[in-house]
Amino acid sequence: MAFESAGAGELFLLGRLLFGGVLAFMGLNHFQNAGQMAPYAEAKGLPAPAASVYGSGGLLLVSGVLVILGAYPVIAAGALATFLLVSAVLMHNFWAVPDDQVQDEMTQFLKNVALAGGALALLSVAGTSWPYSVGVTLF
């Protein structure tokens, strides 16, 4: 079992709080700054850019809170990993932007890929009992 050593459950909870908290905050940011984010989404060619901003904000907010709570871990981690990888490629395509935007887009691309890696790590233990969780799961 992954959480048998002393302090492992507490470290896992802290990791969930940090990871889920950042993602939930990012989701709130989508709602608070939708007016600035929608034109960026439109410039990237997303259909219904405002709806895309709100939808992605909702996914980040809800999934981040679910990670913190330890509820529906397969759904939360799977949705986050998928969204983060897709948005890295669609929204932060540093290979296709003008030179003055390459560094910013590459940073955002790498951030999304790293966060997707964290979501995949959580997904790998989603079938186990998470310490300090509400214990609600579908799988």
UniProtKB/TrEMBL annotation:
UniProt organism field: Haloarcula mannanilytica
UniProt keyword annotation of NAD present: no
Gene Ontology CC: membrane
Protein name, UniProt field: Terminal quinol oxidase subunit
Parts of the chain that traverse the membrane: 12-31, 51-69, 75-97, 109-132
Membrane topology: Multi-pass membrane protein
Subcellular location: Membrane
Sorted UniProt keywords: Membrane, Transmembrane, Transmembrane helix
